[in-house]
Task: structure prediction
Amino acid sequence: MKFTTFFRYLWAFPNTSIGLLLLIPSLVSGGRARSVSGVLEITGSFAAWVLQRISFRGPVAALTLGHVVLGVDEETLEWWRSHELIHVRQYEQWGLFFIPAYLFSSLAARLKGKDSYLDNRFEAEAFSLQRSVKS
Ligand SMILES: [Zn+2]
Result:
C-alpha cells in the first residue's frame, strides 16, 4: 500500500470507525458486507433501519461514512455507487472536518434560501461528478 493511500485511509478513519460500529449489528441481523473499490459496503435490515432514522429531506437510501457505505440493499448501492465514491474522496480530503463542513454547507445553503441538500457544496460536487467516476 502506498503511503498516500495509507494516509487517505488514516485521515478518513475517524469517520470510517463510525461506519464500522454498524458492521457487527448489520451482520448479526442478517445483513451483508463486501469490499468494492476499497470501500466497505454494508446492506441489510439494520443498515436500512439506521438509514430510515437519518432524514435530511425524505428517505436516505445510502450514506457514506469514511470508507464505509451503508445502503438499504445491494441494488441501491449499485445505483448510488459512483455518487457515494465522490463522498469517499471528500472524506479523504476533509478527514475529521468532513461532517462539520458538510453540515455547515447545508446550513449556509438554507440561510441563503436554497436547498440544504441539493445546494450543499459536497452534494453538488457529487451529483456533478458521479457519472464520470468508475467504481
Ligand atoms: Zn450525496
In short: The helical segments are 3-21, 23-28, 45-53, 74-94, 98-111, 121-129. Residues 81 and 135 are 7 Å apart (CA to CA).
